Amino acid sequence: MEKIKSIWHKDGYTLCSFEEGQEEKYYKDCFTKVDLEVDRLTGTSEIFDRDKIVNYYNRIVNDPNRYDFMIIDSLGNFIGESVINNIDWELRSANFRIVIFDSKNCSKGIGTWAVELTRDFAFEKLKLHRLELEVFSFNVRAKKVYTKAGFKVEGIKKDAILDGDCYADDIIMAILEDEWKKIKG
């Protein structure tokens, strides 16, 4: 199956499908600056090797079992990504994740916009039945965005991660096709 390419614009921002030839920019814009808040909220604890990121990008850009969308600001900088991955075509189910790589771009509505567009793409274009995600209990902002987008808590992995010296929960959320249809009215 050939991948569906998409692009959306809002208030100077763009959300678009990953494209071939963007691997160096992806590495430079997204993985060369450390943001401790973003790392904490996403569970990232590693420094990223250029070759690993470039190889990863080139491997996933045409993978038919995932859809990766780049969030781009008005200056053309890659500032985040919104991803549908681990697609099970038989069950019509997939995982969802999003990251804004620099916390200065958070709380501007960009993430909410990208979550809603990616969610809609999953159900409208990919004809999925279920879209799920995991979010850390201390990532209150993300949980609020997911809830607003129609995701519901399905379960909690208690004390599943360490946040500094304290344990925190990993919350499993999902939205089903019928729930999404109600939201879209």
In short:
The chain is of the alpha+beta class. Helix content is 32%, strand content 35%. It has a single domain, classed as Aminopeptidase (3-Layer(aba) Sandwich), CATH 3.40.630.
Could you tell me the radius of gyration in angstroms?
Answer: 16 Å
Helix/strand-derived category reads alpha+beta
Fraction in beta strands = 25-35%
Q: What is the count of β-strands?
A: 8
Structurally, the number of domains stands at 1
What this model shows, in words?
With 185 residues, the chain is of the alpha+beta class. It has one domain (7-184): Aminopeptidase, CATH 3.40.630.30. Helices cover 32% and strands 35% of the residues. The protein contains six helices and eight strands; from the N terminus they run ββαααβββαβαββα. The chain has helices at residues 23-31, 36-42, 50-60, 110-124, 140-148, 177-184, and strands at 7-10, 13-17, 67-72, 78-88, 93-100, 130-136, 152-163, 166-176. The protein has an eight-stranded mixed β-sheet with strand order 1-2-3-4-5-6-8-7, sandwiched between helices. Helix 1 crosses helix 3 (50-60). The radius of gyration is 16 Å and the shape is globular. The model has no long low-confidence stretch (mean pLDDT 95).
Write the layout of secondary structure elements.
Layout: E1 7-10, E2 13-17, H1 23-31, H2 36-42, H3 50-60, E3 67-72, E4 78-88, E5 93-100, H4 110-124, E6 130-136, H5 140-148, E7 152-163, E8 166-176, H6 177-184
Parallel strand pairs: 5-6
Antiparallel strand pairs: 1-2, 2-3, 3-4, 4-5, 6-8, 7-8
List keywords for this structure.
single chain; 185 residues; alpha+beta; Aminopeptidase; 6 helices; 8 strands; 32% helix; globular
